[in-house]
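Handout, page 2. Input:
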Amino acid sequence: MSHYKYVILGGGLAAGYAAQEFVAQGISAGELCLVAAEKTLPYERPPLSKAFLAGEKSTEEVLINEPSFYADNGIVVMSGTAVTRVDFKQKELYTTGEGDPTIGYDKLLIATGAKPRTFNLPGSALSNIFYLRRIEDAQQIRQQAAEARQAVVIGGSFIAMEVTAVLQSRGVQTTMVFPEERVWQAFFTPRMSAYFTSYYQDKGVTILPGTGIASFAGHGRVRQVITQDGQALDADMVVAGIGVKPNSALFEGSGLQLKDGYVQVNRFLETNIPDVVAAGDVTLYRDLVFERPLHLEHWDNARSQAEHAARLMLGIRRAYEHVPYFFSDIFDLSYEFWGDTEGAAQAVHRGRVEDGEFSTWWLAADGRLLAAFVLNRPDEERELAPAWIKAGKKLSAESLRRPTALQEARATMGS
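Output:
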């Protein structure tokens, strides 16, 4: 059995940034081991539905750390090594790796991430139906897009919107299909959905809201998507962005506390098992900004939690406090978002929504700012949004609608 002071279980984004933080904090060679089922070294996830998918970046360009980083810092990397069982009492991982299949640890970071939800419908096993999560998925989609004329993207939220933008930009006539009444209904306000629908349609995308999927048709490979209302949509390829689920089956029955499949951690990112912490998409953590359990599936959270967890394992025990954040690039637009909209009583728009120059501010019933979305707006809005969310700044809808609202609010806050 091999034994390490620190072990990272997982090889995704969180693992890459945790390793980086361990090195920054000055660990010694041979103390850290990274165990990953994927064969590719930890890489950035956002480019998979953006620049990498578009063919603008190579595999090497999306790696979080250069391959030499691990060897130069004495980090043992066990790529392509699946863990089949965890014994938390003995502090051991049992793997499919060659040679000694058992890995011992003093402290463990769980960073197993999430995996895509998939269809179980007639024809869903046909080829050219893709789910985007790993770099291999993006490579296959990119390769098929070079030959395809028509594509169907199933889903109407984050990943689906980004993939649609890339495929349509590459000359593939793309149709977006989703069961909700409007684009990204769970997040966008009706005015925001209307703007993005119009924007995508102007780019040539066909959008079919309120449409469920009944089956897939073809011989060996998909040729049509059959909707629940009887439409047959021609498709050389299909990309489904219908959500993810935590990659936590390994821990069922192990004693690790799970809720709806997510690893539960406290405000420090500690699990209920001594010397075991967790970070990234697999976690349900106690958020201090919103004072409730929160689960996030974005780059910024995975990176921030991974860095925090690494410091925690090294003895720096502080509560994790962080304003949620994500960004997106679609066609020629880039937007940013901070916070969480759950519990919002109203959303206030600033600027010109119909012209794509606006921000949206979500307020609680007491006026506390919960979230903000910014697209083509002054930098001042980008700078103030996260600070005000963290501070629990109270704003009125009436004042927010005034052009000078942010300057006035900043003056009263003394910032």
